[in-house]
Amino acid sequence: MTAVVSGTTASRARPVPTGLRARRDATVRLAAGSLLWLALLLVTYWWVAGGGVQGLGGRADRLTSVGRITGLVASVLLLAQVLLMARVPVLESAFGQDRLAAIHRVVGFTSFNLMLAHLVAITWGYAGGRLAGTPATAWDLTINYPGMLLAVAGTGCLVMVVATSVRLARRRLRYESWHLLHLYAYLGVGLALPHQLWTGKELMSSPARSLFWWSAWGATAAAVLVWRVALPGWRNLRHRLRVASVVAEGPGVASVYLTGHRLDRLPVEAGQFLGFRFLGRPGWTRANPYSLSAAPDGRSLRITVQAVGDGSAASFRLRPGTRVLFEGPYGRLGARARTRHKVALIGAGVGITPLRALAEGLAYRPGEAVLLKRYTTEALFFDELEHLARERGLRVLYLPGHRRGPHSWLPHGVGEVSDLDALRYWVPDIHERDAFVCGPAAWTELVRRDLLAAGLSPDQIHLETFAW
Fold first, then answer.
1. Domain shared by 304 and 384, yes or no
2. Percentage of the chain modeled with pLDDT above 90
3. What single-letter DSSP state applies at residue 430?
4. Alpha-carbon separation of residue 302 from 206, 262, 363, 446 (angstroms)
5. CA dihedral of 174, 246, 388, 449, whole degrees rounded to 10
6. What does pTM read for this prediction?
7. Counting Cβ atoms within 10 Å, is residue 144 exposed (0-12), middle (13-18) or buried (19+)?
8. How many Å apart are CA 284 and CA 66, to the nearest integer?
9. At CA 451, angle to CA 446 and CA 455, rounded to 5?
10. What does the pLDDT look like over 2-47, one tens digit per residue?
11. 97-126 vs 134-144: helix axis angle to the nearest 10?
């Protein structure tokens, strides 16, 4: 098995964290999941207590009852999916963006499907169970019921968001266009509120129910306003980021160095990413997510960009002094997710950027950190990684070449041995380590599969993928 190995024994050791933050994050994840299930059980109880499963005579009653429960559950999930993407710090820290996005996708599609079931069932039920009378009833409800016209407009917004979130559609859209369209979800949720509060029998029929729904809507709106609007605005006013320089790192790859005011007060850690808007260029209104490629030192930040889209390519033409707006930091690919003394950093291509920052910023003793770097043309940060190998005792394995097939995450040079056997050969104690993995989504999934097969628990595997 061919791999280029670099690493020496460093002269200094640093203390290693105990994993307290990882345990706190696990508690937050359990509490958040429990709170969602409790909310769903509560609205289901209200539906049952209101006669949802009793005394159903004919088809119309059954359809109307089904329409009410699907509407209630869809409403809870609708608020949950907004909260999942509201950048609430405690959720960001506990789940990480990749995991939140995956849950958001499941919750979002479930909520949308239930919303459609609600519309069909309630309209069909109000039509007396007569399918032929459904169109006329739908028109009557839309025109004459309070808030229904707004709800129809909100549904249209959500249909557009869901349609552009289907994988086939996403492949045909630029990230910038998809992101802009996705913001219409907020408009869709807002337009649905009047209908729910004005005509929802199970929502406003008692003080307890009114308190529950108003509190849920108020908390969700406050989360969006505070964490997606107010906090980013305050941080930009305080830190005033600007481009210091742009340095070419290789073909189609460049590092952007940023300076600002009081960066030692910006709560960002190695391994995290931020959303950046570089003013004065086309498309500046849309934030592009970039991981830090160097550990923050309180004076400057560095990101490394590959020209794979319009926004990334434009970064190469940035001029010193360009004002930068940012959101974040986000992600938990870092020290807070750590549960073990030893770590393995596994990256492909430009996915090495957050791992390069982690190799510098994590606390570890000589020999406790190993980095597996797969690349095709040029090894990014070669000199910097060699310096970390000499100074910190980082062990680096370079894996050059193209992948040997769609079902392997390793290059051709490793020979006929399986990916799992190669991983165990290079890192015999891999099951005793936390694994931090970053790269393309399909490649990352293959790595995750082998890490689980090697004996790591899911809590030891921390992923970040280049996908949207």
1. no
2. 38
3. G
4. 54, 16, 20, 29
5. 0
6. 0.80
7. exposed
8. 46
9. 150
10. 455 555 444 344 444 456 777 888 899 999 999 999 999 999 998 8
11. 110
